[in-house]
Amino acid sequence: MTIAPNSIEARDIAYQMHPNVNLRTYEKSGGLVIESGDGIYVTDNNGKRYIEGLAGLWSVAVGFGEKRLAEVAKAQMEKLPYYHTFAYKTHGPSIELAEMLIKLAPVPMSKVHFTSSGSEANDLAAKMVWYRSNALGKPDKKKIIGRIYGYHGVTIAAGSITGLPRNHQSFDLPLDRMVHTSCPSYVHFGKDGESEADFTKRMLGDLEELIQREGPETIAAFWGEPVMGAGGVLVPPAGYWEGVQEILRKHDILLVVDEVICGFGRTGKMFACETYNIKPDVLVLSKQISSSYLPLSAILMNDNFYQPIADESDRIGSFGHGYTASGHPVATAVGLENLKIIQERDLVGNAAQLEEKFLARLKALAEHPVAHSSRGVGLLGALEIKPFADGKPGDAALAVAAALQEEGVICRAVMEAVCFCPPLIITAEQIDDMFDALGRALDTVAAKRA
Ligand code: PLP
C-alpha cells in the first residue's frame, strides 16, 4: 500500500504508537483505518466492508451498530456523566449491574468489584489473592500458577500470569511469584500415539508435580481461561477441568477463572464455567460485558474469598485500592443494557444453536490442502494452517489472514492458526459468507505456493 503524504494513514504513522505490532514494520505499512460499523460488519475509509470475524477483539457480542447502547450512554451522560465509587459514595448503574452479575453468576458469588479492562481485573485479583493470604496469616502462600499460552492481560501481575513469551520478553516479566504449568492443547502437545485421556492425565501430572516442586503451602491460586483465547483458541481435553479442580481442592489453592473472552454466551452457555462444570472462587469478566462499547471489567468473588479481605480492610482501616473509573456510571449503564440485549435476543441460545454449523464448516475447511485441523466450541473456533516449509513460524497463518482480509473478512492469526469469534448476532447465512470467503483465501494461498 502506498501511503500518501498527509493522508489519515500517514498521520497515524506520524503520531500514534500502536499496541501489539512490530513498530518498525508499522512505520512502513501503516494500518487499516476502520471508519464505521454495523451489525457484524465494519467499513474502512475506502468504503470496503468486512465481516468482523473476531468481533473486534473477541468482544462485540451485539454487533457494531446497536443504537440502544448509544442511547443509554447519551442518557447517562446527560444525567450523571461521571461519579466514582470511592470514599463511601456509590451510584445506580454500578449497583444495578453488580446485582445483575451476582444473579447471573454460574456459582454463588458474594460481591462484584468493577475495573475497566481485563488486565486491570486480573491484576487486582492477583493483589487481592495476596492481600487475602496476609489477612489469613499465611504470608508465604503467595505464588500463582498460570499456564503456558494462557493470556490474562499485560499489566505487571496479569502479564506475569500470562504465559506468552512475547508479553514477557524485555519487560522483565514474569514476576518470580508466578509459575506456569503445561498448556493443555492436545493437538499441539499430545505425543505420537498418546490418547486424549492419557494426555489429560499427563497435564494433571505436570500440575501436581509443579505444586510439589514449589511447595503446596506456598501456592495461593491457579488462573485459567476455560478455553484459551489469545493463545490460539485452545480447547481443553476431556476431563481436564475436573482433574484440575480436584488437585486445587486437595492443596487448598484458589481457582480464578478468566472468562474475559468466554463470558456472556461465547461457548453457547452464559458462562464457560457451565460448559465445563467449573466452580471458581473468583470469576473475571470483561469484553462482552459491554460489547466493548465502553471499557469495563468485573471481578466476581465468593464469600470465602471476600470475607478475609473485608476483615483485613477493617484491620488496616481501608481497602487501599481503586481507580478513578472503577464502576464508571456510563460504562456500567452500557454494560447493563448490553446484558439485557443479550438476554432479550437470546444471543446465548443463538451461539448454542449455530455451534454445530460453525464447527462443521471449520472442520470441512480443515480438509483443504493448506489446512491442518480445526477446533472450537460455541462461536469460538480456529483453523490450524500447515506451516510453510521455507517460512518463519506463523507465516502461513498470516498469509491466510491477509488473503481473507482481501476477501472481506477480518480474523486473527495466532501462531499457526487463524481464529474466529464473530459477534453473537451472526446468522447461519453470514457464517456461510465468512467461511466461503475463508475457502477462497485458502485457495489463493495454495495457488501462490504452487
Ligand atoms: N484475559 C483474557 C482471557 C483476554 O483474552 C484478555 C484480552 O484479550 C485479557 C484478559 C486482557 O484484557 P484487556 O485487553 O482488556 O486488558
Automatic annotation (TrEMBL):
The keyword Transferase applies. Its cofactor is pyridoxal 5'-phosphate. InterPro entries: Aminotrans_3, Aminotrans_3_PPA_site, PyrdxlP-dep_Trfase, PyrdxlP-dep_Trfase_major, PyrdxlP-dep_Trfase_small. Coiled coil: none annotated. It holds the Pfam family Aminotran_3. Signal peptide: none annotated. Transmembrane segments: none annotated. GO terms for molecular function: transaminase activity. CDD domains: OAT_like (cd00610). Gene3D superfamilies: Aspartate Aminotransferase, domain 1, Type I PLP-dependent aspartate aminotransferase-like (Major domain). Keywords: Aminotransferase, Pyridoxal phosphate, Transferase. Belongs to the class-III pyridoxal-phosphate-dependent aminotransferase family. PANTHER family: ADENOSYLMETHIONINE-8-AMINO-7-OXONONANOATE AMINOTRANSFERASE (PTHR42684:SF3). This is Aspartate aminotransferase family protein. It comes from Tianweitania aestuarii.
